[in-house]
Amino acid sequence: AQTVTQSQPEMSVQEAETVTLSCTYDTSESDYYLFWYKQPPSRQMILVIRQEAYKQQNATENRFSVNFQKAAKSFSLKISDSQLGDAAMYFCAYRSANTGKLIFGQGTTLQVKP
Amino acid sequence: DGGITQSPKYLFRKEGQNVTLSCEQNLNHDAMYWYRQDPGQGLRLIYYSQIVNDFQKGDIAEGYSVSREKKESFPLTVTSAQKNPTAFYLCASIRGTSGTYNEQFFGPGTRLTVL
Predict the structure, then answer these.
(1) How far apart are CA B73 and CA B75, in angstroms?
(2) How many CB atoms lie within 10 A of CB B13?
(3) Under 8 Å between Cβ of A5 and A105
(4) At CA B59, angle to CA A54 and CA B33, rounded to 5?
(5) For site-directed labelling of A100, which of A93, B10, B46, B74 has its Cα 20 to 30 A away?
(6) Under 8 Å CB-to-CB from B40, ≥6 apart: which residues?
(7) How far apart are alpha carbons A105 and A88 in whole angstroms?
(8) Contact indicator for A75, A25 with CB cutoff of 8 Å
(9) CB atoms B109 and A44 under 8 Å
(10) Is B92's Cβ below 8 Å from some Cβ in A?
(11) Per residue in B38-97, pLDDT tens?
């Protein structure tokens, strides 16, 4: 069975600084996808960034980028130039290419200090 | 606008009662999912359905039931057999199960409280 682990329950960052959220996963599958979701206080799940396992190039979306280390099964999220609106819970997720099921980590609560 | 709707937003249930949470999507998505979220925790999969009239158990299916009679609807029933049903429930859908750009869309959620 696949598992996703986020070892940082809480993180804080100063506005305009950079922060990295960690995620590791375990799987025996070769074809899968990885995602980072943001859940603000409204509790609406918002997709932040996604990565195909077969691509070596790290995904980027504006201020958000990932460091994907497939051999180490690591998928960290870097947020640059942090903004107050980035404050939320962030979830790392693994999706099987076969079933489409998403498996979530426990989440990291990010606090952004002005 | 296309999207996923869940109703009600808040739901209160007395112990021993069954209750049904609604999930409707107008995105023409094939697959639909139900997740449970407990405070400070990630989402756990309850049930999922990849096509109409078919569904599979997720990781925590005990005490729950679903149906998929129509492509756009995937209701979740929380039965009296579910020992700790108070939680936040999220419904999601996806066009297909392969390909990164088949983004999984989420509804706004239903907060269920057992009195």
Answers:
(1) 6
(2) 16
(3) yes
(4) 70
(5) B10
(6) A9, A106, A107
(7) 15
(8) yes
(9) yes
(10) yes
(11) 987 789 999 999 899 999 999 999 999 999 999 999 999 999 888 899 999 999 998 876
CB contact under 8 A, B33 and A101: yes
* pLDDT of residue B100 exceeding 70: no
User: How far apart, in whole angstroms, are the C-alpha atoms of residue B85 and residue B60?
Assistant: 11
- List C-alpha distances in Å: B39 to A25, A107, B62, B98: 22, 11, 20, 31
End-to-end alpha-carbon separation of chain A, Å? 41
pLDDT value of position B99: 59
Contact (Cβ atoms closer than 8 angstroms) between residue A100 and residue B97: yes
| A78 close to B (CB below 8 A) | no
Q: Are B29 and B39 in contact (CB under 8 A)?
A: no
For residue A51, which residues of chain B lie inside 8 Å, CB to CB?
100
Instruction: Tell me what the mean pLDDT of segment A15-31 comes to.
Output: 95
- Residue B26's identity, in one-letter code, is N
| Chain B residues lying within 8 Å of A33, measured CB to CB | 100
Cα B93 from Cα B68, distance rounded (Å): 13
Query: Phi and psi at residue A85, in whole multiples of 5°?
Result: -70, -10
Preferred mutation among B106, B110, B111, B112 to probe A, highest tally of A CBs within 10 A: B106
CB A78 within 8 A of CB A66: yes
CB < 8 Å to A42, chain B: 108
